[in-house]
Amino acid sequence: MVTEYTVERVKSGIQGFDDLIEGGFPKGTTVLVTGPTGSGKTTFGVQFVYKGAELYDEPGVIVTLEERSRDLRREMLAFGWDIGKYEREGKIAIIDGVSAVVGLPSEEQYVLEGNLNAEDFLRYVYRVVKAINAKRLVIDSIPSIAFRLKKEEEIRSVLLQFNTILLEMGVTSILTTEAPDPSRGKISRYGIEEYIARGVILLDFVEKEVELKRYLLIRKMRETKHSMKKYPFEINENGIVVYPSGELY
Question: What is the model's pLDDT at position 1?
Fold first, then answer.
């Protein structure tokens, strides 16, 4: 008798997206969201954590390494997302990884020191995840981790170590990175991110009648049947909306 294998799914909170991945991300997986500047990577990650708290009662941690926590909260209000509300309820924690690096004081509860090495960085994130019993984690972004390390050649070993720790945590994680040239197959800054992640999602643009349109492509998703089609999406007042049955313009 063959035992049926089922994969526990974590809903993304991205409207229309779960239809493309059999109902959600595999629980405990690490997903890389990559794309050029302005493609929506940060919004995708924050929406994943925010909707987890709002709709599914799943706490989440956001590690922001490119903008201050206060700026992130303000920007997300454009979508009606009151992150502060869920911080006060202990359902969301934002780790400020910017202030110390640029030499600014921070009044945040969770702040990364400016001179942390890779092990200290990982240990701090782990502590915050455990402190709020987080089920979801977003790290925005990998190139900013490399910047903090001052030695980009260390990023390969750090990512491998980080992926192992994430899997041990049991959280479902999104890591963001820059795609230097998706049209030529260069979908990550360091060329290793897509190999350590169990899922890879590319957000990019296509030009249509002198206008840039957004599309999403699932390059990889372990334990999941998915198409390799390009799906249109938009960022509106509700955040990211994917159109699973839509034509690519």
Answer: 56
How far apart (Å, rounded) are the C-alpha atoms in residues 214 and 188?
A: 18
Q: State mean pLDDT over 149-168.
A: 76
Mean pLDDT of the chain: 90
Distance CA 72, CA 190 (A): 26
Average pLDDT score over residue span 145-150:
72
List Cα–Cα distances, 65 to 43, 138, 158, 190, 237, in angstroms.
14, 11, 16, 17, 24
Beta bridge partners of 221: 199
pLDDT at site 3? 62
- Calpha distance 193→155 (Å, rounded): 10
Could you read off the pLDDT of 70-86 as tens digits, one per residue?
999 999 999 999 999 99
- Residue 11's closest CA among 28, 29, 27, 24? 24
What's at 218, amino acid-wise? Answer: I
Which runs of consecutive H residues, i.e. helices, occur in the chain? 41-56, 69-76, 83-88, 99-102, 118-131, 142-149, 155-169, 193-196
Nearest CA-CA partner of 31 in 196, 155, 144: 196
Q: Walk me through the domains of the chain, giving residue ranges and CATH numbers.
A: 23-242 (3.40.50.300)
With vertex at residue 187, the alpha carbon angle to CA 135 and CA 191, rounded to the nearest 5 degrees, is 85
Q: How far is CA 170 from the centre of its chain?
A: 16
